[in-house]
Amino acid sequence: MAQLVGSLRKELADSLSSCKVLVVGAGGIGCELLKNLVLTGFKNIEVIDLDTIDVSNLNRQFLFQKKHVGLSKAQVAKESALQFCPTANITAYHDSVMNPDYNVEFFKKFVLVMNALDNRAARNHVNRMCLAADIPLIESGTAGYLGQVTVIKKGLTECYECQPKPAQKTFPGCTIRNTPSEPIHCIVWAKYLFNQLFGEEDADQDVSPDMADPEAAWNPKETAAESLASEKDGDIKRVNTKDWARSIRYDPVKLFNKFFKDDVMYLLTMDKLWKKRKAPIPLDWHHLEKTSPQEVSGGGGLKDQQVLGIWGQCQLFRHSVETLYSQLQEKGEGAELVWDKDEPAAMDFVTAAANLRMHIFSMNMKSLFDVKSMAGNIIPAIATTNAIIAGLIVLESLKILSGQIESCRTIFLNKCPNLRKKLLVPCILDSPSTNCYVCVSKPEATVKLNVHKTTILFLQDRLLKERFGMVAPDVQIEDGKGTILISSEEGETEANNNKFLSDFGIRNGSRLQADDFLQDYTLLVNVLHTEELERDVEFEVIGDAPDKAPPPQANQEEVNNIANGNKESSKQSTSAEGWLEDFLIERFILIRGFIPRFVISPGAARRHHDRAACDHPHRWPPGYHGRVCHGLSAHYLCSKMY
Q1: pLDDT tens track for 51-96
Q2: Which pairing describes strands 511-516 and 521-529: parallel, antiparallel, or unpaired?
Q3: Is 49 marked as a binding-site residue?
Q4: Which entry of 110, 192, 327, 483 is 20 to 30 Å from 374 by CA?
């Protein structure tokens, strides 16, 4: 009989106590994970997190207390976890995992890496570092009641970037408050502002500049001092935005200058934020009133599809504030409004506030129609979801350390039980995609853009860093001369930043080689010149549509869906499509009106459409075939079909 140490075989228990693992992220999932690891028997753990503790974290990140507000999450999580197991050896880093100090050699010292992140850029980076170091990665994510865990191993499974992902639905607070880079960031900020002024206030939805932004204040002690400076008698004092707005009787001009001038000027004092970003430009109501005639940009068309000029947005802001204030007065003292995209005044307010912020941060403004389509519900963070996902991460790690990586599964946590009354649905891991531009042997991508309008700085920041996830790219033209466009060494190629690609002889068919030595990653970029991109579309990655379809499967009976981790149970379906297909259609279409990305046979589509007991439109493209989108964070699992 095998000797046991607790509930584990002695060999596995010994492996746990001797192996070294890395936990990336010490937030919602990370806190639960650290606690689970030390209680399971892991002794050598390193944890890294750039963030500091905010008061809004305390309702779900149970390793933190009010006295820790402003301190490093990684350091406090380490100290709290050691109380569960004082003999554990935990090293904490208050830093970004994308810092060049954490290179491939750093990752190679670990047996296993576990992600507990909240943003795609860091997930992409850790994915590449683990591929370069050839070590297993357990990826995870949650969104409300939904969650997902999967295992990534070079050459054996899909990597994090094998399947394209829809736009991210949740964003770090410091991005929303300090450094928005996409229109959706500004729209989320505007919805937060609505609640701060007219609705139910939430500490998670603060819109003022984040003074504890870890990127702006790298010294944890200074950050803690700033955070605790306003603490009195054990209570954290915060400016009540709604009380201030009431005191000025919701004067639109004063509100405007506070949020779009004064707060932006305060952001500019955080000079570290703007060393590698374009700084925001404050707006002043009285200056705009004198210098900006009312105008409409974007041509004709329906009213809600027009894009107002900057003064038009100011007028829309004033009118919506006045209307919403009158609605508050009608409801009586202490009343609150609830944001509704079908309420004209609320939608006008969010559209105007979002567009004004987009203008401040040098983004193209959007029409009311576009803003309305992007303004979805904010997904809450739920402690029990994080706890379940953290437990699943540990279970998958035990399989890896037992040498049974082939037994690992992608596991979905769902809000409602499936037809078999299961909340957890395991699926077999997919093989690497042959079209992946990250984990194939020679990564290559084709990009359609206008070489006469695309600058070198745009190529570096928006295409290579933001879209392709590089950290410090070096780029040269494959022209036989090795012309260098971008150097990761500071100052070497900054003179090229504002030049256009065409200035360097780049034209249709040109090829660029982009190297990121930190990630040990090389990408060949094929340039397709075009002057016919859609409005507000600056480039297009060919073959990058989220619903890109693989060819139909020759034999649907071979679909690798596993029920309860058992191959035999996957054969219990009453049809060739398999029970998992039935479940996913039932879960995401009949209940939520979504189409999941997995192999869907026309027969299954017809079967479920026929028995649908709801009003959701089932717009199935002819012969549609998709596939599971392993977004590794639950909000990536599916997307709406319009």
Answers
A1: 889 887 888 899 999 999 889 999 999 999 999 999 999 999 999 9
A2: antiparallel
A3: yes
A4: 327
Residue 618 has pLDDT above 50, yes or no: no
Q: Determine whether the annotation assigns residue 439 to a binding site.
A: yes
Report, as an integer, the average pLDDT of 134-142.
95
Helix and strand numbers (H, E) in the chain are 19, 22
**281-302 core/surface letters (b: 16 or more CB in 10 A; e: else):** ebbebeebeeeeeeeeebeeee
- 3-class DSSP string for 339-400: CCCCCHHHHHHHHHHHHHHHHHCCCCCCCHHHHHHHCCCCCCCCHHHHHHHHHHHHHHHHHH
DSSP-assigned beta bridge partners for residue 424 = 413
Asked which of 218-222, 353-357, 388-392, 475-479 is least confident by mean pLDDT, the reply is 218-222
Is 240 annotated as contributing to ligand binding?
Answer: no
Instruction: Tell me what pLDDT residue 167 has.
Output: 62
Identify which of 478, 481, 642 has the alpha carbon closest to the alpha carbon of residue 546: 642
- 29 labeled binding residue: yes
416 annotated ligand-binding residue? no
Most confident option among 135-139, 226-230, 564-568: 135-139
Domains of the chain from N-terminus onward: 5-167+380-428 (3.40.50.720), 173-220+239-376 (1.10.10.520), 444-542 (3.10.290.20)
Q: Establish whether 408 is an annotated binding residue.
A: no
Buried b (16+ CB within 10 A) or exposed e, 157-170: bbbbbbbbbbebbb
pLDDT in tens, 180-196: 988 999 999 999 999 99
Closest CA to 28 of 347, 281, 393: 393
How many angstroms separate the CA atoms of 527 and 516, rounded?
19
> 207: pLDDT confidence band, cut at 50, 70 and 90?
confident
Phi, psi angle pair for 637, to nearest 5°: -70, -25
Residues whose CB falls within 8 Å of the CB of residue 222, separated by 6 or more in sequence, listed in order: none
Q: Is 477 helix (H, G, I), strand (E, B) or coil?
A: strand
Answer for the pair 360, 277: CB distance below 8 angstroms, yes or no.
no
How, if at all, do strands 511-516 and 307-308 pair?
unpaired
Q: Which residues are catalytic?
A: 174
